Amino acid sequence: MKEKNGALCGVVLAAGAGSRLGYPNKLGGKPMVRAAGRPLVDHALIKLAAAGLSDVALVVNPANRLVIEAHVADGRAFGLRVTYVVQHEPLGIAHALSLCEDFAAGRHVLLLLVDNLFQADIRRAVAAYTVQAQMDTDQAEIFLVRVPNPQDYGVAVLAGENIAALVEKPSSFISDLAVIGLYLYPPEAFGLIPALSPSARGELEITDLNSLFLQKGRLSYQKLSGWWLDVGTEERLAQAERLLAEQGLL
Q1: Please, what are the domains in the chain?
Q2: CA–CA distance, 250 with 239 (Å, rounded to integer)
Q3: pTM of the prediction?
């Protein structure tokens, strides 16, 4: 397969259980939940392929690996080369990313959470970051979308054109810019993850990794237009179906 973007590889976090959505691990878990007639893992891989990537790691769990691997196979049907990485315990998004260090092999990483669906075309954003990556940038980048219910998400507080703070589920209004489950990281991210401490729920949080980059003055952002959904409930899944139908994808 021809390498489309050698400076950047993709990681899709697909280890989540989907029991709340009727897809336990034996059915493939959350990655196999269908939206617009296709599993969420399909939507994620299609997004990354459209963004110009060709080499992607799928982080799965031991119980859903066989189902997902039988469906995705080597990724060729998506125009991708897919590698499988197993997260044996649910120790957080940053932990899942750390397992992909050997796969990344010194490349920058585009990380996408499988339950995040969004309207925006990210090709230009990824291309712009790739230019920086080829110049050995040490910047991480997050993606922001305006939402009507910021209290449900982690948000970025801006001061002018810069990020002033990252706040998880603010109790009062401080920003309506949600940090979505799409991130760009330099290779240095893997060296920072061991410095993270587990949160109260025993996980290595991706917000803490982003905060480290922010403290170092190395966190940038891009705002995305259009809708975005974290498809973690039946209500949001139904909303995603409606929005995808409006795009002609249902």
Answers
A1: 8-246 (3.90.550.10)
A2: 12
A3: 0.93
